[in-house]
């Protein structure tokens, strides 16, 4: 951690109490605290932020959409628990029909990331795992919403986000 660490005033959520953030990175922790990583919250490590309404994201998150941020894997640092992740892959993704691997905490089941064959050097992290909830409203606020054609009727999307009816591609970032 750097000298500019913010750790007080983080909301009490889950079991772990050692989350922190700086101007350039933050911790993301599973609900039970067994898995914790440090992620970038600025470019070039932070690639993008987005909400996904695809049917796979709806199912894997047990919600109507997933709020995500994409990072370059070379910036991902495990603090603890890499050996406590279990991975499961789905090779029938809605659009690309390629492998999407999910990394879950073995203890509590928190989905920490998804990885795609299409972008093998990136991880799709869950915004809700980031310990500093202020970042959810600022640096990690979704800038794009994808698969808007699959959005449930009672939700009207992210204010100010670019709406895309299909998948996020390098051209649509």
TrEMBL record:
SUPFAM superfamilies recorded: Mss4-like
Keyword Zinc: yes
Domain CENP-V/GFA: from-to ranges: 26-144
UniProt-recorded Gene Ontology molecular function terms: carbon-sulfur lyase activity; metal ion binding
Keyword tags: Lyase, Metal-binding, Zinc
Pfam families: GFA
InterPro entries to which the protein is assigned, alphabetical: CENP-V/GFA (IPR006913), Mss4-like_sf (IPR011057)
Family to which this protein belongs: Belongs to the Gfa family.
Protein name: CENP-V/GFA domain-containing protein
Organism: Hypocrea atroviridis (strain ATCC 20476 / IMI 206040)
């Amino acid at each position: 951690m750097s000298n500019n660490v913010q750790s007080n005033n983080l909301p009490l959520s889950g079991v772990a109490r050692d989350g922190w953030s700086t101007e350039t990175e933050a911790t993301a922790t599973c609900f039970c605290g067994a898995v914790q990583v440090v992620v970038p919250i600025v470019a070039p490590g932070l690639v993008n932020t987005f909400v996904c309404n695809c049917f796979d994201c709806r199912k894997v998150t047990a919600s109507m959409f997933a709020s995500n941020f994409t990072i370059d894997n070379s910036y991902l640092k495990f603090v603890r628990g890499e050996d406590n992740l279990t991975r499961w892959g789905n090779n029938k993704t809605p659009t690309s029909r390629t492998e999407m691997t999910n990394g879950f905490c073995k203890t509590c089941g928190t989905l920490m990331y998804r990885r795609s064959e299409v972008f093998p050097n990136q991880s799709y992290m869950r915004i809700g795992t980031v310990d500093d909830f202020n970042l959810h409203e600022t640096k990690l606020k979704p800038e794009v919403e994808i698969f808007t054609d699959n959005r449930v009727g009672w939700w009207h999307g992210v204010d100010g986000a670019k709406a895309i009816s299909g998948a996020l591609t390098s051209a649509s970032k």
